[in-house]
Each structure stands twice: as C-alpha cells, then as structure tokens.
C-alpha cells in the first residue's frame, strides 16, 4: 500500500519535529501550572504520582499519538476516521479527534489569558517595578493587575493575535528559530534562578515539600489533578501531537523522540518547582494559593537578586515564547481540520477559530475579578473550564487514543509505523498502551468519582 502524504507539507528535518513537539510540551504548564498544582495538592505524593503518570501513561500515549498521526497524515478527525476504517473498524473513531479539538479550544481560551498576564509582567519588569519589593507589594501588584481587566483583555488580545499569526502562516515558519533559541535560554535562566533559590531561599524546605511524599495528601481529586496535569504538560490526549505527527517524514524514531520530550518536560517542571518553593517557604508565603503563585513568587526573586532587574524581562520574554509555541500547538488541530474539511484558507480558518477562542477567554479573565464569586459546583468559570478540559477531556481522549493504538490497530501496522522491530522496546510500548495506560486512566476516573470507595475497594 502506498503511504499517504501530508496536505500541509513536512517538517524539514527530524530536529524541527523534536523542536515543535518540545515547544508544544514546554510552556505555562511547566512553569505556571505545575508549581501551583503541586502547592495546592500537598507536594511530594502529588509530584511522585505525576511523574508516574508522565512515564506510565503519558509517554505511551504520546508514542501512540505520533504513530497514528503519521499513519493518517490528516487532521485528527480525518486521521482517526481513515485509520479506523483501514484497520477494519469504523469511521466513528473520528469523534475522538473532535473531542480533542474541543479540548484544545477550551484550553487555549484560558492559556491565552495567563500568557497575557506574562506579557503584562514583562512590561512591569521593564519598568523596574519589582526592584527591592517585598511579598506584600508583590501581592498588591497581583491583585491590582487582576482588577484591571481591560488591560488583561488587551494582553489576551495581543497574545491571541500572535498565535493566530503563526498558525495562519503555517506552523513551521518561525517556529524553528523560536524554539531553538528560546528553549535552551529558558533552561539557562531557570538554572540561574535555581541557584538563587538555593542560596537565598529555604532550599531544604522546598525540597522536602516537593519530594517527601505524604500519601495522606494524595486524595482522589489530587490523583485526578496529577493525571490531568501529566496530560496537560505533555500536550497529549487531544490530537495536537497527532497533528504534528502528520507532518513527520518517514524514518524518524517516534519512540526515542517521545522519550526525550517527556524527560525534558519533567526536568523543566521539577526545576521550576525547585525555584518556586524555596522562595515560598523563605518568605512565609502560602504554597496553596493557586494560579497566582508564580506571579507572586518570581517577581520577589527578581526584585531581590543580583542583576534581577536585567534578568526579569529576559525571563518573561522567554516564558512568553514558551507559551507561544504551546498556543500554536493548541490551535493547529482545529485549523488543520477547518482547512481540510471546509476548504478554507489557513488565514481565514485561524482568524475565525482564534476569534471564537478569544471570546471564550473573557470567562477566564472575569473569573479573577468581576465574576470571582460566581461559582458553579464550587469552582469559578476558569476552574470549571480547566477541570473539564484538563482532568476529563484529555484523559478520556488519551484513553480512547491508546485503546485505538493498542487494540484497534493491528500489530503489523503499529510495528511498521514505529519501526523499532518487535523486540523488547516495542513489546513494552504495546503492553503499556494496551493495558497499563487505559487501566490507570479508568481507575483514577473511578476513584475520583468515588466509585472505588462505594464498591469497598479502597
Ligand atoms: N503542554 C502545554 C504546556 O505545558 C499546554 C498544552 C496542553 C498544549 N495541551 C496542549 C500545548 C496541546 C500544545 C498542544 O504549557
């Protein structure tokens, strides 16, 4: 059978693909979300469970996604449909792609707002606002930023505009330089911050919080949060990695690339945690304060460290770049789908879909000010959008994708596409994809819904 070819061109090299996938994985999820989630869920045990989910569930699913994507070579909906039919089941599998596109839509709506905060903090840092500031000043600043929603709306608009711009022009152009410079530079700055936090912060307190597991803190909802965070930070479960896999030339090692991306992503998240928590404990801040955590901790570090006035703007620019390359990955599947099914131009599709996501973003903006007290099932709009997308849609999408890769696709197809022979590596992937990942997602779902307890299992 002749292999299909991509409709949107190919990555020019293996390196560009690695850059694109790591660019989508490393983002606000590592620097902003991981520390605040770890803080809210009691640290150690959450972190351990999160790392287990990354390698036991996220990695096999990432491999599955790239593999299905390269097999189908279309947008996630069409790919699932085509490969599903080819493997002798039905085109109904296309709905998994649709589920993913919905998740990307929801995630980008709040992602862009938080990236907007980053943009705002870039301006403050340029104005030297953090200089010698104390925790109280920084807290006041965060509160006044949140109150000033027209300004956040402006930043959110700028960020969505930048994202639409890149996706409209085609993902590859621009992405290469952005990722190959921004990623190593971000890592270097994190390393500098890490040294500062180790010297000036409560290093052992931070390390204890992050790595000493107290399993009584690992409630069912913390487990669900850790699993959702693993999906979120790796960008898996929604077909984004599948869309990138569709542009992957033959002959690239999917398994090795995926393993490298998962490792790098985990290292960056843990490093961010080891920057944040020593400073939190040295200043008696609340680790469980939520989404504002890094925006209240990092300015404090920059305001009081040597060369902080210089390093702060650099850091926020790099974080912005990291968020940008992730946002591009969040928008791409929906745009590829619209271009392929409705024959729209990339530009028109990116503008229309980006515009709708921008509108939904208002709900997140208002969740931190005028609608702060408007709660549904105990959460603000932001918390609900995040919960549905991250903790439900991503793991559900991932579950279906891995069942598809492990059970629906025959051994010949997956072995052919992965091209690592049928030895230990392949068998390990297949075992994880068929049994471990689906079972783990199901168990965490049932546990979070309280069903295991009702059945008397735990
Ligand atoms: N992984 C990104 C981050 O950590 C966020 C994200 C979730 C994402 N799903 C995605 C990015 C899909 C691109 C594609 O910040």
Q: Your description of this structure?
A:
By secondary structure, the chain is mainly α. Helix content is about 75%, strand content about 0%. The chain contains 19 helices and no strands. The model has no long low-confidence stretch (mean pLDDT about 95). Tryptophan (TRP) binds near residues 27, 107 and 233. Tryptophan binds near residues 24, 29 and 232.
Contiguous low-pLDDT stretches (5 residues minimum) are none
- What oligomeric state best describes the polypeptide chains here? single chain
Strand content: under 5%
Q: Which distinct ligands sit in these coordinates?
A: tryptophan
Helix content: over 70%
Q: How many individual helices?
A: 19
Terminus-to-terminus distance = 50 Å
How many strands, which pairing sense, and closed or not: the largest β-sheet? none
Note the main attributes of this structure.
458 residues; mainly alpha; 19 helices; globular; binds tryptophan
């Amino acid at each position: 059978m002749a292999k299909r070819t991509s409709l949107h061109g190919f990555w020019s090299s293996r390196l560009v693909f690695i850059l694109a996938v790591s660019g989508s994985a490393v983002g606000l999820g590592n620097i902003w979300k991981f520390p605040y989630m770890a803080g809210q869920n009691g640290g150690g045990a959450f972190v351990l469970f999160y790392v287990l989910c990354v390698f036991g569930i996220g990695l096999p699913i990432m491999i599955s996604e790239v593999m299905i994507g390269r097999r189908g070579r279309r947008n996630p909906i069409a790919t699932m449909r085509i490969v599903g039919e080819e493997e002798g089941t039905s085109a109904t599998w296309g709905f998994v792609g649709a589920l993913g596109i919905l998740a990307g839509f929801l995630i980008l709506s709040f992602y862009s707002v938080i990236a907007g905060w980053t943009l705002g903090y870039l301006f403050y840092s340029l104005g030297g606002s953090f200089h010698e500031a104390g925790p109280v000043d920084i807290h006041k600043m965060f509160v006044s930023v949140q109150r000033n929603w027209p300004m956040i709306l402006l930043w959110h608009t700028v960020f969505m505009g930048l994202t639409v711009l890149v996706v409209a022009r085609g993902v590859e152009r621009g992405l290469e330089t952005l990722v190959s410079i921004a990623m190593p530079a971000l890592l270097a700055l994190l390393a500098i911050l890490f040294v500062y936090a180790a010297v000036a912060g409560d290093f052992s307190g931070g390390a204890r919080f992050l790595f000493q597991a107290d399993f009584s803190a690992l409630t069912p909802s913390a487990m669900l949060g850790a699993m959702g965070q693993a999906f979120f930070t790796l960008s898996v479960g929604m077909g984004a990695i599948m869309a990138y896999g569709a542009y992957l030339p033959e002959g690239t090692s999917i398994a090795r690339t995926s393993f490298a991306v998962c490792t790098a992503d985990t290292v960056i998240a843990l490093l961010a945690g080891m920057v944040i928590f020593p400073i939190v404990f040295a200043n008696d801040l609340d680790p469980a304060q939520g989404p504002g955590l890094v925006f209240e901790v990092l300015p404090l570090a920059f305001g009081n460290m040597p060369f902080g006035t210089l390093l702060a703007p650099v850091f926020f620019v790099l974080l912005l770049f990291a968020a940008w390359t992730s946002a591009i990955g969040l928008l791409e599947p929906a745009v590829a789908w619209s271009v392929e099914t409705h024959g729209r131009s990339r530009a028109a599709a990116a503008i229309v879909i980006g515009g709708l996501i921008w509108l939904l973003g208002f709900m997140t903006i208002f969740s931190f000010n005028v609608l702060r007290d408007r709660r549904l099932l105990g959460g603000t709009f932001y918390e609900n959008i995040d919960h549905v997308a991250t903790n439900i849609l991503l793991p559900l999408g991932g579950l279906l994708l891995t069942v598809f890769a492990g059970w629906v696709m025959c051994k010949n197809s997956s072995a052919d596409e992965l091209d690592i022979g049928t030895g230990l590596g392949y068998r390990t992937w297949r075992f994880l994809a068929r049994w471990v990942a689906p079972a783990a997602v199901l168990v965490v779902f049932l546990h979070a819904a309280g069903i295991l307890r009702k059945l008397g299992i735990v």
